[in-house]
Amino acid sequence: MSKVAIVTGGNSGLGFATAKKLCENGIKTYIVGRNKERTESAALEIGAIPYLFDLGNLEGIPNMIKEIANNGNIDILVNNAGIHQKKEFTEVTDKDFANIMNINVQSVFAVSREVVKVMKKNGGGSIINISSMASQYGLPKVIAYSASKGAIEVMTRAMAVELAEFNIRVNCVAPGFIKTKMSTNALDNDIQRKNKILSRTPLGYLGEPSTIADAVYFYASSESSYVTGTVLPIDGGNSIGF
C-alpha cells in the first residue's frame, strides 16, 4: 500500500517540485491550493490529487484533513504554503501582520494538529515544515514574513519533542535563494541585489526547486528515520558566506 502525503501550496514553485518528487517515488500526494485552475493543472501534470482549499479558513481545516484521511492514512505532511510581503516597517499594518501570521503560522499549526491526530492512530509519520533563511538574517522590509518563519523553526523543535513518543518526526527545510519564476524576475530587475546574493554564496549560483524537493524527500523517507527537530539550510552556503 503506497504512502499518502499532503503538500500545502503544492501547485507552484517549491511546493510543486516537492509534490512532483513525492509522486515520482510512488507516494499518493494531495496538493492543497486555493486557485482551482492552477491546482488542477499542476495535479494533472504530475499525477497528484488536487484539493481546493483556502488555508486562511482555519475553521475548515479539520474537515479538510478528515476528508483526506477517509481515503487512507496520512504518512507525510509538507507545510509549504505561505505568503510574503515586502513593505517598509512603519507601513506594515496590524492587519498585514496578522494576515501573514494567520497563513504562515496559524494554518501550519492547525493543519499539523489535525494530521497528528491521524498519524497517532496509525503509528507515526513525518512532518516537514518549510522555513526560510529570512529566519536567520535581519532582512529589511519583510518583518512579518521573517517573524513567521522564525516561529516555524521554533514550532518545529517543540513539535518534534512532544510528538516523538508517537513515532512522528518533525523537521524543517530552510531554503535560501532558489531559482523560481518569481525570484528570477525579481533578481533580474535588481542586478545589484542579485550580485550581492551571489557574491556571498560560496557555491556561486542559485539553487533549483528540485534541491528543496530532494531535502524534503529525505526527511519524508526512512533514510532519515533517526532525525527529528532539525532545520536544514539549503542555500549554497549563503548563510555562512562572507
Automatic annotation (TrEMBL):
GO molecular function, one term: oxidoreductase activity, acting on the CH-OH group of donors, NAD or NADP as acceptor
PROSITE patterns noted in UniProt: ADH_SHORT (PS00061)
UniProt superkingdom: Bacteria
SUPFAM superfamilies named among the record's database cross-references: NAD(P)-binding Rossmann-fold domains
Entry similarity comment: Belongs to the short-chain dehydrogenases/reductases (SDR) family.
NCBIfam families the UniProt entry points to: PRK07231.1
Protein name as annotated: 3-oxoacyl-ACP reductase
